[in-house]
Amino acid sequence: MELKTYMCLICGWVYDEAAGCPEEGIAPGTLWKDVPMNWTCPECGARKEDFEMMAI
User: Binding site for Fe cation, residues?
Assistant: First the structure.
């Protein structure tokens, strides 16, 4: 399975499934679908629906 990255459309911050977001309590390897719905961007506070999958 290939891990993906998602970018905040508001500020450009990138969530990488491989890296997770440990400082926000999200372990490395956490799939985007498994990130809690109430999670917000650590940079600007945008909601999950403000993120878009990036093709690399």
Answer: 8, 11, 41, 44
